[in-house]
Write a structure and sequence with these properties.
Blueprint lengths: L5 H10 L5 H21 L15 H9 L15 H9 L17
Helix pairs in contact: 1-2
Length: 106
């Protein structure tokens, strides 16, 4: 999210149509760079992957595996923000993906 919740505000601005996908990607890139630098400065030799998510890691894994339900009309290739956030939040024509509870957590 960032120390001042930068990602939260960038997401809300993008969802409200007040900023572009490029603006959101810039905030995300800056946050990733910052956290990787913090880890490196702390002496961590091997920087782990998937320390960042636009929404959540389960959705990221679903997208990475291409496990997109047919109702989102995805036809292979890159999963863009429209599909990604529709899976997460739904839109006017399709509901969001179901949330499952695992180990008593969302």
């Amino acid at each position: 999210m960032g120390p001042k919740r930068e990602l939260k505000f960038a997401l809300e601005s993008f969802w409200d149509g007040k900023s572009t996908a490029k603006d959101l990607q810039k905030v995300a890139a800056d946050l990733r760079s910052s956290i990787w630098k913090q880890m490196s400065d702390a002496g961590i030799k091997y920087i782990s992957s998937n320390t960042f998510s636009y929404y959540d890691q389960v959705l990221d894994t679903t997208a990475m595996l291409g496990a997109v339900p047919a109702r989102y009309n995805w036809n292979d290739g890159e999963i863009g923000f429209d599909t990604y956030f529709s899976m997460a939040r739904g839109n006017a024509s399709v509901p969001a993906m179901e949330m499952a509870k695992w180990f008593d957590a969302n």
